Amino acid sequence: MPYKYVRIAGNRRQVGQALGKLARPIMSVYLSQSATWEALRPWRGHPYVTELGQQAQAALPEIWEELEGLADGLRMPVEDVLLWNCRGDLLHSTMDGCTSVALKAADGTRWIGHNEDGDPYLYGRCHLVDVALDDAPGYLSFYYPGSLPGHTFGANRAGLVQTINNLRTRQRHAGVPRMFLARAVLDCTTLDQATTLLRDLPHSGGFHHTLGSVSDPRLISAEVTPGAVSILDIGTRYGHANHMVHRETRGQQQVITESSRERQNRIDGIVDGWSPETGSADMLAALHDTLGALPILRTEPGDPDGENTLATAVFEIRDEDVTLRVYDRRNKADIALDVMSDPD
């Protein structure tokens, strides 16, 4: 199994502390081998990082409290944990990849699928956290050690689903760090609330969000960057890799890696052949496609972006419930969860 399933409950600080304790045994070794952490170290103590923290604390005080708890659980300075959670806002390219797909089926079911691509060191060292909060719906999320949940794949008990793709924007604007925004989406109860949050708060980094909800027939593709926000209603099918492709945003300066370009071209070709009768098996086959030198399923030690697929998620969204299935690289479903049910 490429992750461990863990349940957590409490207030914001307590949840953050529990997440930190989960990561504490490997965090030092993880960072010591991370090229991203090495690139971030010159930013320690920089006034711009302090400003990003101030913007996060002012706009999202509940999420800031989770970050403080995370630092406490990790036994790391909050400044270093903030720095780690601002990596995509400071660096033009980080080891966070991913491919997402979305589909509306003929019977009204909405499907969202996602490959979580990241540092190969993390394969088998991440968690699927099932979090119950005192003041929010609670959520399920794939959790990277030391990072706020939400920037991978997840869903909350209000039936809101989110998957995230890294965008390697070359712009830096003072604003709310992108991982704080992604975490805050999992506290929303509707698509409109989530898209308003993404549109209205200032952004210091770039993410692509695929969004769906039990209470809304739409599927949403949102490219959120320091320079612009583009929110599209997905028609029947969609695929997205790791660069901006919306008309309103694709002209911005960005890093487009060869892997991202190849995966975008390949996933576009696959989803163009889908119909409303397409189902979860086709979606999983697309995410585990190995055609080409730089395939969608990424398992090569020499991947040019330094990323491997850590887990694959398929969300089935109906009008009353959400089911999450998480797969390893062999198409085997490790776990199937009813997201709307409270944990025992």
Secondary structure layout plus pairing:
Elements: E1 3-10, H1 12-32, H2 35-40, H3 47-59, H4 61-74, H5 78-85, H6 87-90, E2 99-104, E3 110-118, E4 126-133, E5 139-143, E6 153-156, E7 160-166, H7 178-185, H8 191-200, E8 207-213, E9 216-224, E10 229-233, E11 237-240, H9 258-272, H10 280-287, E12 308-317, E13 322-327, E14 333-338
Parallel strand pairs: 1-4
Antiparallel strand pairs: 2-3, 2-11, 3-12, 4-5, 5-6, 6-7, 7-8, 8-9, 9-10, 12-13, 13-14
The run of helices and strands is EHHHHHHEEEEEEHHEEEEHHEEE
| Strand-residue proportion | 25-35%
Give the overall shape, derived from the CA principal axes.
Answer: globular
| Beta strands, count | 14
Question: How many domains comprise the coordinates?
Answer: 1
Which topology does CATH recognise? Penicillin V Acylase, Chain A
**Main sheet attributes: strand count, strand direction, barrel closure:** 8 strands, mixed
> Helix- and strand-based class?
alpha+beta
Mean pLDDT equals 94
Structure summarized in a few sentences:
The chain has a single domain (4-9, 92-338), classed as 4-Layer Sandwich (Penicillin V Acylase, Chain A). It contains ten helices and 14 strands.
Explain the overall architecture.
With 344 residues, the chain is α+β, with helices and mostly antiparallel strands. It has one domain: 4-Layer Sandwich (Penicillin V Acylase, Chain A), CATH 3.60.60. Helices cover 31% and strands 27% of the residues. It is built from 10 helices and 14 strands. The chain has helices at residues 12-32, 35-40, 47-59, 61-74, 78-85, 87-90, 178-185, 191-200, 258-272, 280-287, and strands spanning 3-10, 99-104, 110-118, 126-133, 139-143, 153-156, 160-166, 207-213, 216-224, 229-233, 237-240, 308-317, 322-327, 333-338. The strands form 2 sheets. It has an 8-stranded mixed sheet. A 6-stranded antiparallel sheet has the order 11-2-3-12-13-14. Strand 8 (207-213) and strand 9 (216-224) form a beta hairpin. Helix 3 packs across helix 4 and helix 4 (61-74) crosses helix 5 (78-85). The radius of gyration is 18 Å and the shape is globular.
